[in-house]
Design goal:
two-stranded antiparallel sheet; Thiolase-like; ten-stranded mixed beta sheet; single chain; alpha/beta; 3-oxoacyl-[acyl-carrier-protein] synthase activity; Peroxisomal Thiolase, Chain A, domain 1; 413 residues
C-alpha cells in the first residue's frame, strides 16, 4: 500500500491577491489580473501587458531578510509563510530533519540578473552588488524557505519550465511515500516580467500582441481569436503531509494528493507533440498512480495557455486520455485570469484545483467568446458554476517537452 499524502496548507501570491482566499474569490468571480505592464517602459515592445503582482510589501511579510531576496524568492517565502500558518505548522509541530522543501522555478532571479548586468556594463565589475549570485540562483527560493522554517530535510529546486511547480508537487509526494520526510513544503515561483523576460518570449512569438488596448481580454484559452499567452508572476505553495502525521496532530485536511505522472515529448524545443503523446501518457500515469479510472475525474485544470498550438493539442490529448468521458468533464484554464506564471503555474493551479474540490465549484475559462472548432469540450466558458467534484487533475506542459500531471481528490477516511 502506498503511503497516503494529504494537503494541509496552502499559500499564494498572485496578480489576483496575496493570499489563497483573495485568489480563489477573484477566480470564482471571473476576475482578470492582467493589465498594462508597470515594471518597466514597454514603449518599444510588441506585447505591453502582463499579470503583475501589485502592492506587495515583502518586508512586511518576511521581515528584513526580504532585502536579500529577488522577487521570485520573496513570492515563494511569503506563500510558504501563509501555507505553514494554514497548516498550523508555522510555530513547529514537525521534526526539522523530517521537513523538506521542493520548489519549482523556470527562470530564476531575472530582475537581479538584469540589474547586475546593467551595473556591470555601466559602472564596471567592482560595482556589482555582493548579493548578486545568492539572489539569482534558482535553488535559493527553497533555500530561503528552509532557513525561515529550519527545514533540515531534502531541499531542492525543480526546473522543468512550465511544469516546474507541478513536478515539485510530485517530488514532494514521492519524498513522503518513500519515508524521507513527514511534511514537505512544495510549490512554484516566478518573477520574469522584466525587459529581457518579455522580450525573449516576444521574439519566439509566444506572447499575445493583439490585445494591448484591452488587456483583460488578452488571455483567451480555447477561443478562436487567441494569439498567445500573457505572462504572469507570483507563487503558490502547498504543505504536503503523510496522512499518519496529519492525523496524529489533528490537522485540518483540505484534500488528498493521490497521484502524479510525468513524461517528456522528446520532440521539439518549444512546441508540444502534435498528437499530445507525452501529455496523454502523463495523464494516464497520474491516474494509474492514484488508482483511479478516467471516469473518477470530474474536473481538469488545463494547461490552457491561449496559444494557437497548445489549446487544440491539449484538447486532443484530453480526449485520448479520457475517451468518451472527456465530454462529461468540466475543463477550464485559470490562466485566463492569472496569466501564465511559468514555473509557478502548476502550483497555483493545483491550489485552485484543491479549492475547486473544497468549494465544489468549477472555475471558469473567461474570454471564451467564440470557441475554436478544434476545441470542443466543456471549458466552463466565462462563468464558474457549482457542481460535484470528487477528483480533479491539474496538468502542465513546458518547453523542452516536459509534461506533469497531479491528481487531487476529496479526502475520505
Amino acid at each position: 500500500m502506498k503511503k497516503r499524502v494529504v494537503i494541509t496548507g496552502m499559500g499564494a501570491v498572485t496578480s489576483l491577491g496575496h493570499s489563497v482566499s483573495q485568489l480563489w474569490e477573484a477566480v470564482k468571480r471571473g476576475e482578470c489580473g492582467i493589465d498594462r505592464i508597470t515594471h518597466f517602459d514597454t514603449t518599444e515592445y510588441a506585447c505591453r501587458i502582463a499579470a503583475e503582482v501589485k502592492d506587495f510589501d515583502a518586508r512586511a511579510v518576511i521581515g528584513k531578510e526580504a532585502r536579500k531576496m529577488d522577487p521570485f524568492s520573496q513570492f515563494a517565502v511569503a506563500s510558504a509563510i501563509e501555507a505553514m500558518r494554514d497548516a498550523g505548522l508555522a510555530d513547529g509541530g514537525v521534526d526539522p530533519e523530517r521537513l523538506g522543501v521542493v520548489i519549482g522555478n523556470g527562470i530564476g532571479g531575472f530582475e537581479t540578473l538584469e540589474d547586475s548586468f546593467r551595473t556591470l556594463f555601466e559602472k564596471g565589475p567592482s560595482r556589482v552588488a555582493p548579493l548578486t549570485i545568492p539572489k539569482i540562483i534558482g535553488n535559493i527560493a527553497p533555500g530561503n524557505i528552509a532557513m525561515y522554517f529550519n527545514a533540515q530535510g531534502p531541499c531542492y529546486t525543480i526546473t522543468t519550465a512550465c511544469s516546474s511547480g507541478t513536478d515539485a508537487i510530485g517530488e514532494g509526494l514521492r519524498l513522503i511515500r518513500e519515508d524521507e520526510a513527514d511534511v514537505v513544503i512544495v510549490g512554484g515561483t516566478e518573477a520574469a516580467i522584466t525587459p529581457l523576460g518579455i522580450a525573449g518570449f516576444i521574439v519566439i512569438q509566444a506572447l499575445s500582441t493583439k490585445y494591448n488596448d484591452s488587456p483583460k481580454k488578452a488571455s483567451r484559452p480555447f477561443d478562436k481569436h487567441r494569439d498567445g499567452f500573457v505572462m504572469g508572476e507570483g507563487a503558490g505553495v502547498l504543505i504536503l503531509e503523510s496522512l499518519e502525521h496529519a492525523k496524529a496532530r489533528g490537522a485540518r485536511i483540505h484534500a488528498e494528493l493521490a497521484g502524479y505522472g510525468m513524461t517528456c515529448d522528446a520532440y521539439h524545443l518549444t512546441a508540444p507533440h502534435p498528437e499530445g503523446r507525452g501529455a496523454v501518457k502523463a495523464i494516464q500515469r497520474a491516474l494509474g498512480d492514484a488508482g483511479l479510472s478516467p471516469e473518477d475525474i470530474d474536473y481538469v485544470n488545463a494547461h490552457g495557455t491561449s496559444t494557437p498550438l497548445n489549446d487544440p493539442i491539449e484538447t486532443r490529448a484530453i480526449k485520448q486520455a479520457f475517451g468518451e468521458h472527456a465530454y462529461k468533464l468540466k475543463v477550464s484554464s485559470t490562466k485566463s485570469m492569472t496569466g501564465h506564471c511559468i514555473g509557478a503555474a502548476g502550483a497555483i493551479e493545483a491550489i485552485l484545483s484543491t479549492m475547486a474540490i473544497v468549494d465544489q465549484f468549477f472555475p471558469p475559462t473567461i474570454n471564451q467568446e467564440e470557441p475554436d472548432p478544434e476545441c470542443d469540450l466543456d471549458y466552463v466558458p466565462n462563468e464558474g458554476k457549482k457542481g460535484r467534484i470528487r477528483a480533479a487533475i491539474s496538468e502542465t506542459f513546458g518547453f523542452g517537452g516536459h509534461n506533469g500531471v497531479v491528481v487531487i481528490k476529496e479526502y475520505r477516511e
